[in-house]
Write a structure and sequence with these properties.
The protein is mainly alpha-helical. The protein has 15 helices and no strands. It has one domain. The longest helix has 30 residues. Belongs to the EamA transporter family. It is a multi-pass membrane protein.
């Protein structure tokens, strides 16, 4: 291996590690934000923070777009950022941050399902096996309860559906990007799609919530605001740029490895924060990660 390829490999692994830490920490930051703000306030302010950070990249580029591109970027912004930003805090009102991070790893499998159902993509036996294993893990995660017993159907934690809905949004957004943005760069897609949803986030945040009142009345508001600012600017804005760089340098398959490493960081943060994971939860976590790996690994030979 020559020095150039060695440096590229080192950079790729460095980006993977950095993104793992950033995205794996997002769930504990959401948890901290929810100590003061509602799920809607956390989601909206996260988008405001992320879009504001990328304004120097988005504003100079928007003048070069036509109306169709702007409309598609709005759709991408809603599916890839805005809606999931609300769904994850809603889920975490009843799910631990660690389990939410694990469930988020289902996104690649939903990419396969959405592609097969709506975009004429093929679903292989390997994909199907991965789905079965991963969903078995999901059932364990949402139905296993303290004491080693199992919840009845009515007792299953339905808040996991919010995470699944977010994964589905991410999946549709991938195909929107793939089919409608052949002439735009990754930086343009990331920054301008966030710019498109900025007015919606601002209107909701200041006209539809008590966000402003909490900032001046709640004793822990500034601390929680700092966590959500970090979540938006680093966990969304900066991470999108880093991920796009990694995709270009290392390819989509290497970039997809972050799916398997994010839950590790999310679980570690959760345990450090006092969240209790039972033995059955670890089996469920292992099944989800195994299912995602089986369903997305490349065929060799």
């Amino acid at each position: 291996m020559n020095s150039s390829s060695s440096e590229n490999s080192l950079l790729s692994w460095g980006l993977l590690t950095l993104l793992t830490l950033i995205w794996g920490s997002s769930f504990i930051l959401i948890k901290r934000g929810l100590e003061v703000f509602t799920p809607g306030e956390v989601g909206a302010y996260r988008m405001v923070a992320a879009a504001s950070l990328l304004l120097p990249l988005s504003i100079p580029r928007i003048k070069n777009l036509n109306k169709t591109q702007i409309k598609n970027l709005l759709i991408s912004g809603m599916l890839g950022s805005f809606i999931p930003a609300f769904l994850f805090p809603m889920a975490q009102t009843q799910l631990s941050s660690s389990l939410t991070g694990v469930l988020n790893a289902l996104t690649p499998l939903f990419v396969v399902v959405v592609g097969a159902l709506f975009f004429d993509a093929k679903i292989t036996r390997r994909n199907l096996l991965g789905l079965i294993i991963a969903f078995a893990g999901v059932i364990v995660l949402v139905a296993y309860k303290e004491g080693g017993g199992w919840s009845s159907l009515s007792g299953i934690n339905s808040y996991a559906l919010f995470v699944i809905a977010a994964c589905i949004c991410y999946s549709f957004n991938l195909y929107v990007i793939k089919t409608r943005f052949t002439k735009l760069t990754s930086i343009e897609i990331s920054s301008i799609s966030l710019l498109m949803i900025l007015p919606v986030a601002l209107m909701y945040l200041f006209a539809g919530t008590q966000f402003s009142y909490k900032l001046v009345s709640h004793p822990n508001a500034l601390e929680a605001l700092g966590y959500v600012t970090l979540l938006g600017m680093v966990g969304t804005g900066t991470a999108l740029i880093l991920f796009n760089i990694m995709v270009k340098r290392s390819g989509p398959f290497f970039a997809s490895l972050v799916t398997y490493t994010i839950p590790i960081v999310a679980i570690l943060w959760g345990v450090l924060d006092g969240e209790v994971l039972l033995l059955g939860h670890y089996f469920g976590i292992a099944a989800v990660i195994l299912g995602v790996w089986v369903g997305n690994r490349k065929k060799t030979g």
